[in-house]
Amino acid sequence: MSGGNNTITLTTSEAIVRWMIAQRTRLEDGTEAPLFPGVFAIFGHGNVTCLGHSLERAGDALPTWRGQNEQGMALAAVAYNKNRKGRQIMAATSSVGPGATNMVTAAGVAMSNRLPLLLFSGDSFTSRIPDPVLQQVEHFGAPTTTVNDAFRSVTVFWDRISHPAQILQSLPAAASTMLDPATRGPAFIGLPQDIQAVAYDYPTRFFDTVVHEVPRPRPDSSELVEAARLINEANTPLIIAGGGVHYSVAEAELQAFASKRGIPVVETVAGKSSFLGDDPSYVGPIGVTGCEAANDLAAEADVVIAVGCRLQDFTTGSWTLFTNDNTIFVNINATRFDAVKHRSVPVVGDAREVLRELDPLTADFHAADAWKELAAVKKAGFREYLDAIGTPPADGDPLSYAQVVRAINEIATDEDVCLAAAGGFPGEVNNGWWSKGIGTFDCEYGYSCMGYEIAGGWGASMALEAKGSDGDVFVFVGDGSYLMMNSDLYSSVLTGHPMIVLMCDNGGFAVINRLQTGQGGEPFNNLLADTRRGGPSAEDLVRVDFAAHARAMGCNAEHVSTIAEMKAAVERARSADRTTVISCEVDAYTWTEGGCSWEVGVPEVSELEGVQQARAAMEKSMTEQRRGL
Description:
- By secondary structure, the protein is of the alpha/beta class.
- The chain has 3 domains: 7-212, Rossmann fold (3-Layer(aba) Sandwich); 221-381, Rossmann fold; 391-507 and 543-585, Thiamin diphosphate (ThDP)-binding fold, Pyr/PP domains (Rossmann fold, 3-Layer(aba) Sandwich), CATH 3.40.50.
- Helices cover 37% and strands 17% of the residues.
- The strands form 5 sheets. The chain has a 6-stranded parallel beta sheet, with helices on both faces. Strands 14-13-12-15-16-17 form a 6-stranded parallel beta sheet, with helices on both faces.
- Helix 23 links the parallel strand 22 (556-559) and strand 23.
- The model has no long low-confidence stretch (mean pLDDT 96).
């Protein structure tokens, strides 16, 4: 209703929803779309009677999707937003208390991956008259503190609305922060239960349609000139493609830049599928989950051009990878915080625009033919290794992760998306999956979040639908992550967003068992066989029937034992009307090799000789660490 004087009287919740509907975004292809295409929601006291009511009234203008677990639905939002390259922002809302804190992990995923995510949670009453309310955690010396303060460490924007007028500043500020490449990340807004219900006369212009566009900051001219000088003087340059290449939609510019100059390219986990696997410039993945080919080049490079890269420890091998003391980093990044890491020469700006402006300044540069030839030889050797380990096993031999990844990669199209997360799969898909399409790979390894896989697959499937893609989402998940979070299998069936889940059972947390024993420890509490057991599992280990479990949640499911059976199952899954789970058993001790050093905490003293040896090896490898901030 009208409040007069160009105002409209709405509750705080109604105003939030109306404002969200009015926000539009310009996509990378120039078309417009809703900035907030929907809201994932689990309702409870704190968000059902006000925000929930407003979302119900909004209908298709702001679709609400029911989650099964607050963490899972927020992870689905992260995957959706990542697939849309940060230009659309799926939101999520929970009730107070445990509903809110369940979303903290998802916020951490978005924060570490520099991805937008808008979260609303119910909060305690600002009046404090009903205190303590159900699910309220009281802080004796800080009565304004609630569990929602836990989001402060995992968001780039945090606010608690204590007056209905505050959203006039808070909502636009949150949107701006989430869309700006220099500050992009998750935003949290706490909504006290009484404030959600309060009516206020809002200016009608607050609900005018606004079309947002992700800014593309241009680089400083002096930084650009210095970067060009270093590139032009390089002998053995190397490009590292990070996740920022995707978010800037700079893939074509980077491909052209590398090809014209004969510079080899390696990719981080987040940057994977910036190049096609058969691109002549592309060598392979770098770092701990990378390959020897890429890491060998990194050790010899004199100028490393990092594009949209956080230089995380898995990329740098805990900074042991770049053993050339004279290596210079030219760091192209929208965020100065990242651009200056480890004494890098910074070029702060949008990756696409920086590459376009660097092009004429380095037009006459070309890497030495010998360097380019060495990269090609290294890549060929890597491919031969993958061919060998990816060959289907002999009858009766167990499958390996590498064989599963190779089998699906062979039958994938250029629109299919490969999705994985924590555990053993990041190293396997990062090496074994050779991209057939640009931007078709999502391995969450910034936060390495177990449970992202199935929830993320749900969100990615929704994003593919929004893009009008005919591709399928292939979710690679181990039994550990599956057991940790699987309820969004049902979400995908309920909402009609299918995916194909490759559920590989290796009998526990096998990759952590590998780390445990590889550092000299005894197998303990990781593989199911090494876990304290009782009841029916005391004598004979009880294993999960994953196919039966998936069928119970409405999925199509089957168990396979061979690569041929797996490929046939995938073909059936492609024509199915719902999610299909294909389970198989894989060997717990067979892994794709490669990688480099990684610093972990190994005890300085131990009774175990294996731990002593591991400590000595760790100390030796860390003598090669590049020192810096």
